Amino acid sequence: MRFHRLLLDSVAAVAALFSAALPLATEAASPATAGTSVAQRRAQVPGVYRYRVGDFQVTALSDGTVPQDLHVLLQGESPAEIDKMLHHAFLSNPVEASITAFLIDTGRRLILVDTGAGGLFGPGYGGKLLGSLKLAGYEPEQIDDILLTHIHTDHSGGLVSEGNRVFPNATVHVGRGDLDFFLNPANQGGVNGYDKKYFEEAVKTVGPYVKAGKVHAFSRETWLFPGIKAIPTPGHTPGHGFYRVESRGESITFIGDIVHVAAVQFPKTAITIVYDVRPSDAAAQRESQFAAAASDRALVAAPHLPYPGIGHIRAEERGYTFVPVDYRDRHEP
Ligand SMILES: [Zn+2]
């Protein structure tokens, strides 16, 4: 997924209007909130959500959220029908999309799945990953490996800051198809109407790791580490990949951009989004992976589902439903 820039401008304009009106609405602060600023009382605390998978700890790290104008972005269904589906899910257009990265702590290695948008969506949109990572108790220098589900700005943007590698000790693992497509000099002007920005941003974010000899590409199912397997799932992008993590009979699969909008694409897997490089392949991949995950009762994690985006996919009479995991907050014995 990539953020729709026209929308960014209009949302920023609306946000500016609201913030201009704020002082009037908040003058009468209660004594209980004295000493804290309005900004503090409105900000979400950086998102950290832990989930245990066998011997491994998985931590969902919020990079923030961005609004998505689904009338513009979705393909294969009318805006009226999309509005009906959103209404059914107690939502309305535009819909907020989470951007989530996941940290796998195996006890031996620290492995990050995707890196959020970094600074590439501009102030206020994404870029919260490092704050979440630190709050979770880790530093970027400690990350050993990064598993990119694919090379799109909101997954690879956090790899760099002002041209420098944010994770200096990490090797980036990514599907060969994405390296060949997005970093190919011949594609830098855009391909078949697919915006050249995707390619420019890929060079900016993954390029420094290529230069440093810190990229490992895979083109078939590959065990990267004990219990962690890369699985090519092309469609959304040519080198899009899942990562399946197994420990002590439990598993979780990181499913990347197989889904962008839960309220619409679980009930109707044929609905695609303009970010898909090959929309019909993306829809076919979604249908077959949802069917497999539902029949296996597989635990999955997806970056754009509402944070933390960890749960199961249930087959319904028609289509599917996403069922988030339960919440736990207690000391393990
Ligand atoms: Zn994407």
Describe what you observe in this structure:
The chain has a domain at 41-68 and 97-258 and 285-311: Metallo-beta-lactamase, Chain A (4-Layer Sandwich). The protein is α+β, with helices and mostly antiparallel strands. A hairpin with a 2-residue loop joins strand 13 (241-247) and strand 14. It has a seven-stranded mixed beta sheet. A seven-stranded mixed beta sheet has the order 11-12-13-14-16-17-18. 29% of the residues lie in helices and 27% in strands. The chain has helices at residues 5-26, 38-42, 70-73, 79-88, 129-135, 153-156, 176-182, 196-211, 262-265, 279-296, and strands spanning 48-53, 56-68, 74-75, 95-105, 110-113, 145-147, 160-161, 164-165, 171-175, 215-218, 222-225, 228-232, 241-247, 250-254, 272-273, 299-301, 310-315, 320-324. The termini are far apart. It is globular, with a radius of gyration of 20 Å. Residues 3-27 have low confidence and may be disordered. The structure holds zinc ion. Residues 1, 150, 152, 236, 257, 275 line the site of zinc ion (ZN). Residues 1, 150, 152, 236, 257, 275 line the site of zinc ion.
Gyration radius (Cα, Å) is 20 Å
CATH superfamily of the domain at 41-68 and 97-258 and 285-311: Ribonuclease Z/Hydroxyacylglutathione hydrolase-like
Computed structural class: alpha+beta
Gross geometry: globular
Q: Termini distance?
A: 40 Å
* CATH topology (level 3) name of the domain at 41-68 and 97-258 and 285-311: Metallo-beta-lactamase, Chain A
